[in-house]
Structure formats: C-alpha cells, structure tokens
Amino acid sequence: MRLDVVSLAPEAFMPLLALGVIGRAFSAGIAELHTHNPRDFATDRYRKVDDEPYGGGAGMVLKPEPVFAAFESIPLQLQRRVLLMSPQGKPLEQADLRRWATGYGQLVFLCGHYEGFDERIRSLADEEISIGDFVLTGGELPAAVIINGVVRLLPGTVGTAASLEEESHSTLLLEHPHYTRPADFRGMEVPAVLRSGDHGAIARWRNQQQQERTAQRRPDLFSRWEEQQPNRIPLS
C-alpha cells in the first residue's frame, strides 16, 4: 500500500519507519510512506503557506494554493482514498481502518495546521476523519494513528493474523482478559477455567467476559452489538 501525507511537519512521521512491526512492514515493502510539504510548493520568496482569514478573527488559515499543488504532485494510483484530518470529521472506528486496509491501494492524508484551513481544501477529500472530540495543533498525530492502524492490518505485518480478529473493536466487543505465567501472582490468580484445558469452556468464558467488559466500559458499543444479536440470551 502507498501512503502519502500532505503536511507542514513531515518529520512527525519519521518515527513510524522504526516503530516495531509497523517499521518492519515499511522495511519489507508491505507499505511505503511518502511526505509532501506544502511549503515546498509556495511560490513567493518567503514560502508563505498561511494568511489572515477573510472576515477577521484570530489565527491564521492554511492557504489553498500550496496544498492543492502538493496534492496534485502525488502520483495517482488505482483505488485511492483521500482522508482529511479534521475535528469536524467522522469519528474513527476500527471498521474504517479495515475498510481502508482491504479496499484501497493508496491513502492520501491531508493534515491541517494553524487555526484551520481554507474551506476549498475540503474539496480534495473523499472523507473527513476525527480521532476524538478535541483539537490538536495539526493533523499529523491523527494521520499517524490511522497509518499505524491501517498498516498493522495489511497482510504480512502481524505474524498471527488470527489475533487481529479477536481484539477489541473487531466485532464491537472489547477484548477478553489475558493471563500468562505465573498462575498466582501476589494473590491474584489466573481463573481456573483458563487452566482447565476445556477449550469449549474457555471460549464461553472469554465471550462472556467480552460482553461484560463492553457493557460496563462502553455501553454505547454494547448497545450497538446487542442490536446485531436478535437471538442472544441477555447477561444475567
């Protein structure tokens, strides 16, 4: 997969190239990362990329010309999706990461900066995405989050593909608890069912734990999951 980032802070993405399994995925050619700085496409002597907003107001606004020029310099590949990082966007979900990882060969990230960006920049995007109801100084961290989440889903990145199917949010439910040796640590014991060798009982216990955890910690997700389970027996 090809990943292209339009950003005034391309150095923010360099740590991804050395980040554990994500870094190894880039080294192995599973994904490739390219950055494009709008400042390199500014045409004035000061390489100006922002200006005062029409109508007045605090802060500076990212100009459309250098962003459009940077975007238009990116080689177009088949099955491309353009994502605009914005606190006004759709909240990010695991299903989005999986959709992008399996449905596209190129993702382009547009990262805002300063007070905001010229409204016309929105016309470049296929989707606007937010990672939460808060505001950061730019779109670099949200873009890095998405890149991490997408690359780990690409075939060959994670050694055991089945682990990607059993984790939190893969089915709206949070993941069940995990334990390893020792069986007793400072009086905290591993549940007996996990040491029983009864794989059916273990599977039922894990499913029950997923439901209970989700109901307690994320009732919003649990309600959505319940709607998809018309024959489910309610938790006691």
What does this molecule look like?
- By secondary structure, the chain is an alpha/beta fold.
- It has two domains: 2-151, SPOUT methyltransferase, trefoil knot domain (Alpha/beta knot); 166-227, Trp Operon Repressor, Chain A, CATH 1.10.1270.20.
- It has seven helices and ten strands.
- It has helices at residues 20-27, 64-72, 94-103, 140-151, 162-165, 199-217, 219-227; strands at residues 2-6, 32-36, 50-51, 61-62, 80-91, 106-111, 116-117, 127-130, 184-185, 188-189.
- The strands form three sheets. Strands 2-1-6-5-8 form a five-stranded parallel beta sheet, with helices on both faces. Strands 3-4-7 form a three-stranded mixed beta sheet, with no helix packed on it. It has a two-stranded antiparallel ribbon with strand order 9-10.
- Strand 1, helix 1 and strand 2 (32-36) form a beta-alpha-beta unit.
- It is elongated, with a radius of gyration of 22 Å.
- The mean pLDDT is 93.
Properties at a glance:
three-stranded mixed sheet, Alpha/beta knot, five-stranded parallel sheet, 236 residues, alpha/beta
Oligomerization state of this entry? single chain
The largest sheet is: 5 strands, parallel
* Beta content: 15-25%
Helix share bin: 25-40%
Short overview:
The chain is an alpha/beta fold. The protein is 30% helix and 18% strand. It is built from seven helices and ten strands.
